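Students often ask why we bother predicting the structure of a whole assembly rather than each chain alone. The short answer is interfaces. A chain on its own may look different once its partners are present, and contacts between molecules only exist in the joint model. In this exercise we take two input lines together and write out one structure for the complete complex. Read the inputs first and try to guess which parts will touch.
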Amino acid sequence: AAGVIQSPRHLIKEKRETATLKCYPIPRHDTVYWYQQGPGQDPQFLISFYEKMQSDKGSIPDRFSAQQFSDYHSELNMSSLELGDSALYFCASSLFRVSYEQYFGPGTRLTVT
Amino acid sequence: SQQGEEDPQALSIQEGENATMNCSYKTSINNLQWYRQNSGRGLVHLILIRSNEREKHSGRLRVTLDTSKKSSSLLITASRAADTASYFCATDEVVKTSGSRLTFGEGTQLTVNP
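Now the answer. The structure tokens for the assembled complex follow.
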């Protein structure tokens, strides 16, 4: 079965640079979520989209923005990167109309140097 | 984590033994889910239990939910070395109409020794 795809899997950036993370949800899933997991921490919710509209917003810095496109893929844009942004970034998708189960991608490991 | 705590934070057992992990949460919930994460990798969905359910089974997994105590437990029976991973509980709150964020507990690191 198709899973959530994230790219790139690894990304190294310098402070103050920008980064774009991409997420391709499971086909026909209507909701996309972004989570951030710092080293040794639990995942923290950033933002979600339902049918391409932003549906919920968590602890996402103003330097970050996200959107979902007409083909349902989503991008997380991160600007003015800081050392503290180094983390695993997960995308998850769900078919919210049917089930609350969220299926996670493998994550993008972002390292800011 | 702002939502819940898991205990123990780390658990080391021998292959074949049972492993029990507990999770507590603070708010009213709609569902509680358990996820597994191998070191630095993605989160794998294990099981979902609804707020009106008390127990659920899936293979070697047994989950209980006590909404009066705001707690849940995950039991893995006949553990295997391949079960070595971090285990997180995650809750979603009142029903929403357009997606429901998950709030994760702090996780239990399970090590199963061969």
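Check your guess against this: The interface with chain B takes residues 31, 33, 35, 41-45, 48-51, 53, 55-56, 58, 88, 90, 92, 94, 96, 99-107, 109 of chain A (CB under 8 Å).
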